[in-house]
Write a structure and sequence with these properties.
By secondary structure, the chain is an alpha+beta fold. It is built from five helices and eleven strands, in the order βββββααββαββαβαβ. GO terms for molecular function: copper ion binding; hydrolase activity; S-methyl-5-thioadenosine phosphorylase activity.
Length: 172
Amino acid sequence: MVTLPLPSGAVPDADASFTDVHGQVCIVMTADCLPVLFCNEEGTQVAAAHAGWRGLVNGVLEQTLSKFDEPGKVMAWLGPAIGPDAFEVGSEVREQFMAHDANAVVAFKPHNDRWLADIYLLARQRLMASGVTQIYGGEYCTVSAPETFFSYRRENRTGRQASCIWISTECG
């Protein structure tokens, strides 16, 4: 997690960025992982998070929300990610989510000897548990829309989608 702007020349390695500076862009690059964009109700604070399954398990959304003055008054947008019919995971992934919240069970469907995971539902659960009630997006599948989105799972090598958010210099 980094707060922008950074000192000149700094190149961070982080799964999320936050700013309250007009014109400063928060950006996340994804192929199948879930990009989540945040904005407070006043439009004075924004953030972007890269929420793959590891990031979700390790609390990237909660860490991002902690940067906001009033986390309960934040809106979240779930960008394009691998959909619930394509995101196949092993039992170890399911168990990590279940260890955090038993309600995660509804986000997993048995599929052969593995599980299909709904990353959108898992993110919604984490956001709602943190007090976020305004959650939008979450209806695209990067794997099943090759004409629209890049997907590492589909192609084994790929480009990336950029999800960006900033505070317009005309605001406030």
